[in-house]
UniProtKB/TrEMBL annotation:
One cellular component (GO) term of this entry: TAT protein transport complex
Top-level taxon: Bacteria
Species of origin: Rhizomicrobium palustre
A molecular-function term among this protein's GO annotations: proton motive force dependent protein transmembrane transporter activity
Keywords: Cell membrane, Membrane, Protein transport, Translocation, Transmembrane, Transmembrane helix, Transport
Subunit structure as annotated in this protein's UniProt entry: The Tat system comprises two distinct complexes: a TatABC complex, containing multiple copies of TatA, TatB and TatC subunits, and a separate TatA complex, containing only TatA subunits. Substrates initially bind to the TatABC complex, which probably triggers association of the separate TatA complex to form the active translocon.
Topology versus the membrane: Multi-pass membrane protein
Transmembrane segments: 30-48, 86-107, 119-141, 175-197, 209-225, 231-251
Single Gene Ontology BP annotation: protein transport by the Tat complex
Keyword Amino-acid biosynthesis in record: no
Compartment(s) of residence: Cell membrane; Membrane
Protein name: Sec-independent protein translocase protein TatC
Family under the similarity heading: Belongs to the TatC family.
Function field: Part of the twin-arginine translocation (Tat) system that transports large folded proteins containing a characteristic twin-arginine motif in their signal peptide across membranes. Together with TatB, TatC is part of a receptor directly interacting with Tat signal peptides.
Amino acid sequence: MTQISDKDEAEIEASKAPLLEHLIELRKRIVYSLLALLGGFVICFTFADPIYNFLTAPLAHAMAGQPGRHLIYTQVYEKFFTNAKVGLFAGLCLAFPVIAAQVWMFVAPGLYRHERKAFLPFLLASPALFIAGAAFVYYVMLPYALKFFLGFETKGGKDALPIEMMAKVSDYFDFVTSLIFAFGLTFQLPVALALLGRVGIVSSAMLRSSRRYAIVGITALAAIFTPPDIFSMISLIVPLVILYEVSIWIVRGIEKKRDQEYAEREAEE
């Protein structure tokens, strides 16, 4: 058990408030978060076309040298609602620092000082890992996945019509953002395992002994979240296995620090 200092106790006592005050504080943080999201949405909806063009750049590159290729929409309102989804998606990314800060300002007063110090690195690492997963999708996996799917086009011939991919703007956006969210969330593996190690639910020895089962689970996860080609699956399996190994070392470092703190307390007693 972690020893709580008198200073920490006094700090927690000072932050205590009636339930109504907590609800008022929660409402304030939610309002600020929604205002940040609304502001991000308005800004990004205004620039929805450039943002969408950025997302379609891998597809344009995969179709380079093929004149006449384009995206389509089949409903009168489809492009408008796609722009709205682009604005919401990009606006959420833009407002995330503000939203995370509001969450932190609501939760932090209820934590001890040592708990705030322990939790803050995970709060900072989580968006960095999400961005790393999203960048991995955009720059590494997506170009190869698009080439794979475009490989199913046929030129046609005698008594056979050509088959050509004409993606809808909404379908392409859903496809790309689904991959970004899937990779961004799966790249949170070190944060999740480190937090579990911090509270003692998992240990480095447990993670090492479960390595083969973890690899099987990662493979199954890759089969679910990636397009059905071997490169896309490997492109998720390899970084997740590396992140799993990194998690083992992180949890081991947490255990060493915990043992050191326990030995210091024992020596003082």
